[in-house]
Design a protein that fits this description.
Layout (H helix, E strand, L loop, with lengths): L3 E6 L4 E7 L1 E6 L2 E6 L5 E13 L5 E13 L3 E6 L2 E2 L6 H17 L6 H25 L7
Parallel strand pairs: 1-7
Antiparallel strand pairs: 1-2, 3-4, 3-5, 5-6, 6-7, 6-8
Helix pairs in contact: 1-2
């Protein structure tokens, strides 16, 4: 299968550079899949899972927190606000953040920036999703694609 270069960077650091057979991006309009030789395209990213597969079958996932991606036939460059591996995520902290955000939204306080709290809730949910998917993979509870 043809490959392309996958590059993921955040404002803090380069996160990943590898050859990939495909990548699935969390785009504003839904999941966006890319194979080698894809026509040039730019796509806005939202909070979600970025999944990729390397030649030989090794795959990986990141929790991505928005940004954008540039695609051409030979390279996919992802410029993310944040990108985290499951190993970097503290599950308990994310559960607490998720509950805290839900509680704030339920209180319906006029002193709260609802959009900010909703973004915090989405980010915590994405991180928890990645962490749980990773745990299932490592305990034999399933394989992701």
């Amino acid at each position: 299968m043809p490959v392309f270069k996958l590059v993921i960077v955040t404002p803090q650091k380069p996160v990943l550079e590898c050859e990939a057979e495909y990548v699935t991006l969390p785009a504003a309009g839904g999941q966006f899949g890319v194979l080698a030789r894809h026509s040039p395209y730019a796509v806005q990213l939202v909070e979600g899972l970025l999944r990729y597969k390397k030649p030989g079958g090794e795959d990986g996932e990141f929790a991505v927190m928005g940004g954008f991606a540039e695609i051409n036939g030979k390279e996919v460059s992802v410029f993310a606000e944040a990108a985290e591996l499951a190993a970097e995520i503290n599950e308990e902290n994310q559960r607490q953040e998720l509950q805290r955000s839900k509680d704030i939204l339920a209180a319906k306080s006029k002193d709260v920036d609802i959009e900010t709290v909703q973004a915090q809730l989405r980010r915590a949910a994405v991180r928890l999703n990645l962490k749980q998917r990773s745990q299932k993979r490592h305990t034999g509870g399933g394989r992701h694609a």
